[in-house]
Amino acid sequence: MDFVGSFVNLIDSNLIAPFVQQIKHFTRSSDNVNEMGLVVGDLKATKNDKEHRLNAAKNAGQVETEVASNWFKAVREIEMKADDIEKEYHQRKCAGGWCVNCWSLYRLSKRSVNLKQQADRYKLNENFDVARPASPKSVKEIPTEPIMENQPSTERMLKQMLDCICDPDPRLGIIGLYGMGGVGKSTLAGKVNNHFKDSSCFEAVIMVTVSATPNIQTIHTSIGKRLGLDLSKDSEDDAREKLFDALGKRKFLLILDDVWSKLELKVAGIPHPRNSKGSKILVISRNQDTCSVMGAKETIRVQPLSEAESWNLFVDKAGEHVASGDIKRFARKIVERCKGLPLAVVIVAQAMVNRHGVGSWEDALREMERSAAELQGMKEEVFVPLKFSFDRLENDMLRSLFLYCACFPEDYNIDIAGDDMLNYCVGEGLLDKLGSLKAARNKGEYLIESLKIGCMLEDGEYEGSVKMHDMMRELAIWITSSSSLESGSSPKFLIKTGKSFKEAPQSHEWVDATRISLIDTQIEELPELGERCPKLTTYLFRQNDILTIFPQTNFLEHMDHLSVLDLSY
Known about the structure:
four-stranded parallel β-sheet, Rossmann fold, alpha/beta, five-stranded parallel β-sheet, 5 domains
């Protein structure tokens, strides 16, 4: 009996049950197709929900996971197959509801059962993440202002920088880029960053703004984010260690922008380039010394634009109408006064872009000749940022010397070894403090060199001389003018230099001045001073050969604190 029972079971499981199942494919074809449609419909709804979540994640900067990509692809194929089955099923049914070809009906039913089972499996496997944080790109493109496009001098500087960066010499691991404020250093740095977008030279190119008061945590976070590290919950020590380890495994280019003082690389979690697979660090600063103390063996100064480049930039920003007609001659003179400083050129162009009357341009030139700060946007966009360089000078003596240099006429070559510097040394009491003329001159020379290194002064036209960039001179005049003084804390200068000045300042203007410069003017008459000038320490009135009326009553006696008086011709 056991043998018979086993034989019957064998016949049932291997012959009868499969046969019955095949019969069901035929008899339940309509139910099978409908059940498949319901399951695939649920799966499609799940897919739609997941796609909405994926799109939201993509908008937040995340990317699709590989698991999600494969799942979506498989589900779409299931949808297509289900559509084909349903379409074919309805096409093959005759008017009475029976299919003319029974074999075709059987096959469709079987396919629908198999597809339903496949859909069930993907419905069960729906618990996965559709998105993940994007892997950091080796280079994140930085938007740069198009203020230096197609400029030969810019291209030359960019090539010089790239040559140093790509030079395998380990001594060039740290490179310095410096120049006065507004000259385009950050724009150039952005171009360097973007240059490596399509290059495999570095595994990571990272640009970080350091600022005058560095925040180590912010620097850690900025670098870590570019490396795909979440350091938000780490202590400063842990963050530093993770960064040091991550950067040490890569060949990187790190661009440190807006550096004002030495940043300890170790504290910032940055390995020294000489120990890190040919990595490079580019230090951007307004001061050459800052680049050097950071370890830069090669420093590159960003020079102002040429006259032709300045004009092309100005026309591009202000519009073609400035390059024709009577406006052009005024526009040319306005651009000349910007002396190649891209920031100033752009700000002035923006101020004049909608000015089409010749009178407006003549008035703008007059304003710039009188005080560039009066022109729209110049104070907020040019002088305030430039003043930060002044404020960050090392000591009051450097600030005083910088302001003193503005007493000389525009484009004047200041003689370091001659009376120009001697007057300053005497006026500041250096002769008394240091005990000898030589020591005072040496101190003056040291201060001048410091201002040159900080891009506050530049070399003059002959050896032993320096001069001020016009925008730096305008900055100094603005700082010492009544319009910028705050609670009387800054010295007030009265500067009227050059042959365009034919009238002396009125007597009331002299009272609060600390320094007065009337060099190389066409003044014929000086005013009667009715009050003392208790703050006046320097009075420069030289290179004037047409003065005919000198005040009769106690003119110089009103200046009882005067240290420097220059009436030479």
